[in-house]
Amino acid sequence: MAPSAAERIVIENCAIATVDAGDTEYASGHLVLAGNRIESVGAGKAPEGLENVVRRVDATGHLATPGLVNTHHHFYQWITRGLATDHNLFDWLVALYPTWARIDEQMTYAAARGSLAMMARGGVTTAMDHHYVYPHGSGDLSGSIIRAAAETGVRFTLARGSMDRSEKDGGLPPDFAVETLEGALAATEETVRTHHDTSFDAMTQVAVAPCSPFSVSTELMREGAELARRLGVRLHTHGSETVEEEKFCHELFGMGPTDYFESTGWLGEDVWMAHCVHMTDSDIAAFARTKTGVAHCPSSNARLAAGIARVPDMLKAGVPVGLGVDGTASNESGELHTELRNALLINRLGAHREAALNARQALRLGTHGGAQVLGRAEQIGSLEPGKLADLVLWKMDTLAHASIADPVTALVLGAAAPVTASFVNGRQIVRNGRLLTVDEDAIAVATRAEAQRLARVTAQA
């Protein structure tokens, strides 16, 4: 729809953090949404004489930011939260794989709805899910996840994962939890051809995403990269998460994770890796040289005692970095806006101390950085004319934040701010902290029931 004919929403009297290239901010400004695009953003009141204005929002006391962009998650883990709470990554995986290997379509759909609802009501407008567990006979898991995202109303990337290295091959997953090399590649290609949308305002995209070096054969890594580039989609996997993974790669491949990824075609501007905690100077240089992206997951890294990622060094080198919730079996809150705060605080425990990150850098990680990592920085991640109308109004005049003069500092370092409104593609999906698109209470009931059913199925097995 042409902007001149589009229905307009006018938002006025709010502080605005655009997160554009110059970090432009307005103490009191306006936004005009025309259809699914941002038509104008600036200081003061909106322009006079606008046609087709269907709604005016007085956003006094609010901060407007781009919608948050989640770059790494495992939705199915919503129904296995609170388990193996004192484990490192490898022990945690061994403890939970027998349960995860028994998920089915109904469980996956319920878990996806729970994960998506929790993120969306907290300011996430673009989500992703790295789903890699496809038990035999479990139904259309990818389709159920995409359906849940569409119902929630968020922009979505499905990273269609896979595993073909099971216990019998020296991997961690049970033998019955993995696919064959051929089966994984064929199913991934079918998912891309069925669901991937290349349009500017795409609501659903698909990436090729073998799980990790210790659950995937070298053949699947190499052929997965070839498949992604033949289909013109992005690539995603886990990388350099723990010291155990580093040891595994050296023992099995005779090299560290980054060198292994490069040998299999897995470095490039169309690739992003989750975690990247244990990176040497040469690893960071390789990521910077190839523009390989990173999904930083501070809460999950702390929960699994993986370590502190070198985010300040990555940013200085020019590595694209976004934020990720990670699966809710290692980040039980399931919220991305808390990762803004945790990214800043945890990185200040590292070598750079108080100079590691500031509040605006943290906000950029969660918005524009995430858009870069997902390959969508031209469409989302900042509030600029012509970009898609994905934005959040955070209420900053309550007891929790009203005495903090700088709204961006209040958002990042203060308590989790209430979301008064969240727009995706110009459509409001959250009002006063509640979802408008789905029934949160019904989702809570369904996820509890499916968590209990999965526990029973696992116990019986």
UniProtKB/TrEMBL annotation:
Keywords: Hydrolase. It comes from the Bacteria. Residues 64-408 form the Amidohydrolase-related domain. NCBIfam families: PRK08203.1. PANTHER family: AMIDOHYDROLASE-RELATED DOMAIN-CONTAINING PROTEIN, AMINOHYDROLASE SSNA-RELATED. This is 8-oxoguanine deaminase. It comes from Streptomyces canarius.
